[in-house]
Amino acid sequence: MAVLVARRIFAPMTWDGGSTETDPGREYDIAGSMLMPADRVRTLKLATLDDLKAASNEFKVTASAVPVRAMRLGIMNSEVASEYLAQLRDEFRSHPKTTGGNRILPENAVRKYNGRELTVRMLRVLDSGTISTGEFCRSVCLNHIDHSGIDDLRRALQ
Predict the structure, then answer these.
(1) Which of 74, 94, 114 is the last residue of a domain?
(2) What does the alpha-carbon distance between residue 70 and residue 84 come to, in Å, rounded to a whole number?
(3) For range 112-141, the mean pLDDT
(4) Percent helix, strand, coil in the chain (nearest 5)?
(5) Is 71 found in the same domain as 120?
(6) How many domains does the chain have?
(7) Rounded to an integer, what distance in angstroms lies between the CA atom of residue 137 and that of residue 59?
(8) How confident is the model at residue 102, as a pLDDT?
(9) How far apart are CA 8 and CA 17, in angstroms?
(10) Which domain holds residue 28?
(11) Per-residue model confidence (pLDDT) at position 14
(12) Buried-exposed string 116-136: b where 16+ CB fall within 10 A, e elsewhere
């Protein structure tokens, strides 16, 4: 999201990170180089699904982002990357679905997605009156929080 804002593209990135077929464009490559620097990715052993998960843990990205980044760097071919992505999808589908008790609160999801710093700064922009509450909810919270949930978001940051 920060890359899109820096490039003056005020829209959420909607590219499917689990696909090797689409071209996500320069924004993905910029974000990828920030989150997973090429020199560090090239030193990793990415021979198993566990290797991918360890790398995703190290870089704090989703496991599906690792084979896509490796493919875009030419470290992994698209067939191997597609196979890993299929394995990850199958694994995700086989997890039992949670009910009720483990619900993620929208304010925690927004805080985690945006990061603490962006959220705090954008709340300051909202408080200064530079953007409206509606614009804040649309652009920062992607409409997952409405005006009544902004105080909950503030509390989640403390």
Answers:
(1) 94
(2) 11
(3) 91
(4) 60, 0, 40
(5) no
(6) 2
(7) 29
(8) 63
(9) 21
(10) 2-94
(11) 46
(12) eeebeebbeebeeeebeeeeb
3-class DSSP state of 13: coil
The residue type at 141:
C
Token representation of residue 112: 């985690």
Output the CA–CA distances (angstroms, integers) from residue 144 to 26, 45, 150, in the order listed: 27, 38, 11
Query: What's the pTM?
Result: 0.54
Q: SS in 3 state form for 79-95?
A: HHHHHHHHHHHHHHHHC
List of residues 6+ apart from 21 with CB closer than 8 A? none
Distance CA 46, CA 58 (A): 13
Residue 31 amino acid letter: A
Give the contacts of 20 (CB within 8 A, at least 6 positions apart): 67, 68, 71, 78, 81, 82, 85
pLDDT tens-place string over residues 92-122: 888 877 665 667 788 888 888 888 888 999 9
Beta carbons within 10 angstroms of residue 76's beta carbon: 22
